[in-house]
Write a structure and sequence with these properties.
The protein is α+β, with helices and mostly antiparallel strands. The chain is built from nine helices and 27 strands. The chain has helices at residues 2-21, 44-47, 109-121, 161-167, 182-194, 218-223, 273-277, 333-338, 361-365; strands spanning 23-24, 30-31, 57-61, 66-71, 74-78, 88-93, 96-97, 123-129, 144-152, 159-160, 172-173, 214-215, 232-243, 246-253, 258-265, 283-293, 298-302, 318-321, 329-330, 340-346, 354-360, 369-382, 394-400, 403-409, 429-439, 442-447, 453-455. Strands 3, 4, 5, 6, 8, 9 and 10 form a seven-stranded mixed β-sheet that branches. The longest helix is centred in the first third of the chain and has 20 residues, at 2-21. The radius of gyration is 26 Å and the shape is globular.
Length: 457
């Protein structure tokens, strides 16, 4: 009996010592022993030095060479064609995996994205470094794995942004120890864990919306979208088009006699039944997060979900009815270009007070379908970059009397599968229908099919 009691006590001691000596990361895995945090916070990102003579240094840039801030661990840069034939390098940061802030929305994702943007936008110089002297693609094949160094205003030394994200707790590890700066990456991660920073803390993220979806109409969303930034919303509408993991949803408002639209990016979040619900012609209830898509300069709703095991979950996208058609409302170019409208919008979500805002026709109809009749194609620009997925896409500058509208197509093919070129439309009078889009500070019409352009002469 005494031996049994002694064995039980020894086993209990072992369990308690394991609990005391082992931590767990945010994914539930075991980590090294965590000690009490040091009062001193070590700036590892400033300690590591960039060797400009190393063959791993691949590209020296400036802030003007930044094409797009995508999220915390991905940035697109303009680079010489000797580096990338299409002049753009999509940089995926080595050793880090920041929370999502685009197609999927996660806690601390917005903060990580803003941290990267703030660091690079205030830099005087930027350097991209590979890990082994070669340009190495990530698992997608379209992005290249790099160390991003930047020199802040007023500084003579470079800082390593990858390590800075790790030491500030804005990234979990991503093969962080298996690289040229592995030791210092691990030290930065351990310090962030010891200080319980951001992703390693139990704190709530002030930029993440934890509440239930806010019911809103597409009119309310389109006319006051900044009020809902980062929030989860729920609205209804008809799916009119689908392209590049994005659907376009529109809804009619009787009071203003306008169709309002929204871009909904579902990314890789949906499969099976969820994708079927987002079919063109379906009327659906969308639940997602309102986000500003900086790359395109427009707003979208993302983080769309559908859980097969819980089809009636109110967080799911839901089918309401089917068999609907896009409005494709016939619109005069003069109305589209010159009309404004006053709309009452909420001043906050906490009360019913409103204010009057003035919108252009393009602003109100953004994301909705329209059509134009008897417009003449004055000129055509064709994307010719060999490396671009848009090679062959066209922008048709169309005129009707004194008014001009731009029609941007995807790459178009005829019924036999042949590429449609500018010759098919140049100088012709056409009817065209499509989605109201926004590009380079101007509202235009986006066309997804050759069937949406009818040549009249």
């Amino acid at each position: 009996m005494n031996k049994k009691i002694l064995s039980l006590l020894l086993a209990l001691c072992l369990v308690l010592s394991c609990v005391a000596g082992c931590g767990s990361d945010d994914k539930g895995g075991k980590t090294a022993e965590v000690t009490e945090p040091s009062a001193e916070f070590i700036d590892y990102a400033g300690q590591v030095e960039l060797d400009m003579e190393s063959d791993s240094v691949k590209c020296a840039l400036t802030v003007e060479d930044i094409k797009a801030y995508v999220d915390g661990d991905t940035t697109h840069f303009y680079v010489p064609t000797s580096v990338s034939p299409n002049g753009v390098l999509k940089a995926r940061y080595l050793a880090v995996n920041t929370p999502e802030s685009t197609g999927k929305i996660e806690e601390w994702g917005k903060k990580a994205s803003n941290f990267t943007k703030t660091a690079l936008s205030g830099a005087t110089d930027i350097v991209l470094e590979s890990d082994d002297g070669n340009w190495n693609a990530d698992s997608t094949g379209g992005r290249y794995l790099v160390w991003v160094w930047y020199k802040p205003q007023g500084s003579d030394t470079y800082r390593n942004l990858n390590i800075e994200l790790l030491q500030n707790g804005l990234s979990i590890a991503s093969k962080s120890g298996d690289n040229r700066y592995g030791e210092i990456c691990n030290a930065a991660i351990n310090q962030a864990k010891q200080h319980e920073l951001h992703v390693h803390s139990n704190e709530t993220d002030p930029d993440f919306y934890y509440g239930e979806a806010i019911p809103v109409t597409l009119k309310g969303l389109r006319t006051n979208i900044e009020l809902y930034e980062n929030m989860k919303v729920a609205f209804e509408g008809v799916i009119t088009h689908e392209n590049s993991q994005t659907v376009y949803v529109e809804e009619y408002d009787e009071e203003t006699d306008m169709y309002y639209g929204m871009t909904v990016y579902y990314g890789y979040n949906l499969t099976g039944a969820g994708l079927e619900i987002l079919s063109v012609g379906n009327r659906v209830r969308i639940v997602g997060s309102v986000q500003y898509y900086a790359t395109a300069g427009t707003w979208q709703v993302s983080d769309i979900k559908y859980v097969d095991m819980r089809p009636d979950d109110p967080s799911n996208v839901q089918l309401i009815s089917s068999g609907h058609e896009a409005s494709n409302r016939v619109t005069d170019p003069a109305v589209f270009n010159n009309t404004t409208m006053d709309v009452e919008v909420l001043t906050s979500l906490d009360d019913d007070e409103t204010e009057t805002k003035t919108f252009s026709y393009g602003e109100l109809s953004l994301g909705a379908t329209v059509s134009f009749e008897n417009v003449r194609v004055a000129s055509i620009y064709t994307t010719s970059n060999e490396e671009s997925a848009s090679k062959g896409a066209m922008t048709l500058t169309c005129r009707q009397f004194a008014e001009t509208i731009d029609v941007r197509t995807v790459v178009l093919y005829d019924a036999e599968g042949h590429l449609i070129t500018a010759e098919a439309y140049q100088g012709k009078t056409i009817n065209v229908r499509g989605i109201v889009d926004y590009y380079n500070g101007k509202y235009q019409i986006k066309v997804f099919s050759a069937d949406d352009i009818t040549v009249l002469d």
